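re: ur question from the group chat, yeah i did fold both. here u go
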Amino acid sequence: MIKNSSDPHEVQLKSKISVCDGYLRVDRYRVTHQLYGGGWSQVLEREVMSRGAVVGVVLFDPRRQEVVLVEQFRIGAWAADWPDPWLLECVAGIAEPNEKPADVAVREALEEAGCAVTRLEFITRYLTTPGSSTEQVDLFCGQIDSAKVGGHHGLADEGEDIRASVWQLDEALALLNGQRICNAMTLIALQWLSLHHADLTLQWLPETADSA
């Protein structure tokens, strides 16, 4: 896309104050920005949740054609009166300072699902809620062996109680047609996998091309 020279591209920060610095950090900004029609906007006052970099990984066993997903209680879903706040999701976690996204994916797969990732394929990077949060996600697909996956995982000192489950690929992709998957990260990951699983299998298991 070619950017029009008249498009807005400047923002002026008028003030920033901390509103909350607990499990989540919230700052109140006062900003003004250039308008499409020229000139500047009125001063906008907005609260923004400051969130560290997040990494997600959908775990795929190309040999068995299986996907590993995790399930855990989510306070936001509960507070929103979602029918079932135990959500089925990809593995995900927050990056430590100076930790590379790929390293986070490997670490979280082991912590949340007991899976050793042997290879990673980058899917995309996106903002989760750009209207009110700084959170951005690096999303991967990770190659794993799903043979012995299952049970409960997570870090007790972080209050995690996570159940890992194995799904046949077609069953996992069929979840896209209902409301069982209700979070953007997992929807994006499974939609990507639905388009790329065949090529990914050939890439990760080239010997399958000879037997096809």
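okk and heres the other one u asked abt
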Amino acid sequence: EFAICRIEPRNMRMCRITKQLRSTKDPGGGLHPFFLTKEIQEPTLIITRKDSGERHPLPHYAVIKEISYQDVAFTYDLGNKFFYRGASGSRNKIEILLRLILKLREIGFFIKSIPSLVKFKPDVIHVHGLVCILGGIFGKSVLGSRFVITLHGITEATLVQKFPVLRYLLTYSDKVICVSSAIQNSLLKFIAATKLAVIPGGVDLELFRNLNLPRKNQLVAVGYLKWQKGYSYLLEAIAALTKFSHYRLVIIGDGPERRQIEEQIERLHLTDRVDVLGLLSQQEIVEHLNESKLFIMSSLAEGLPKVLLEAMACGTPSVLTTACNAEGIIEGVGTAVEPGNSLALANAIEELLSDEERWNRLSKNCLEVAQGYGWETMAAKT
């Protein structure tokens, strides 16, 4: 399976280890390793979780090794308690401990990846997320590979802060790439500044672009339906909209919190104002971003969200929370409010919808700023 890589001598043999890689089942997941592989043209082995969807075409110099394993997600209550409020009570602590133990099953992913790593002998292993860190450590310690890890969210930085063993494991890395300065700043106490770099994710500027479609009375939210996204606060904000109660919200995505979200929509009597569309193709997402007046993100924890960049590339201003770590960007393309505050979110939405001149200015800025986040640029920095 590695023959193609061997017949073309190049400068460096790359390995990317990632839990997600772009596919028809999860078109918005795993874009980072996918586009870095396209732009960094070296013989590349990609080790990823097996996906039932159809993979998007990879360049001829890349091969893929898919490994089956079962992921374990935190629920909203447990995740919020563990990462932010602190677990209290024996029942909560035991449930969190059991879920952490279950997540140790992911070690099987690492064990199954060893034969491919040994056979390929990569010069550089680029690991995406803490869940894949053991592969990087193995490559560094046993194969003599350089080991780079990208941390994609503030949740991962919080784990590093909470668990000394993770801080120890990160000492094996040659470089830690953070997708936002907030992640970098949270790690400076534990990791030398010379080892840290800030390189955001990118956006596919050929796909995400301004289609000049008529804007509907519509708001759009895009993302995995998990507790970190704070959808409960977004729904409360929609219920609180008064002047713009005729606007609809479309939520694009799927995940473990979908049932809770749909139940809350019914409780708040929002069934005629909110649609949960599930997973859509990238082209369909482009159309919704172009048709919507605002992109909304109510997250409690993020890195720098790629979907913000995608919304910008479509000329769609945003209302975010400060947990999205978009400082330095959001001022020119939208507005940010504190996380977990549905009233502040509602007020920010109404302010932007009320000021057409400001909306036009922000929309123009979005298109200009997005040009600096193409994947070619981000790959060159990487």
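fwiw on the second one: Confidence is low (pLDDT under 50) at residues 1-9. The radius of gyration is 21 Å. idk if thats what u expected
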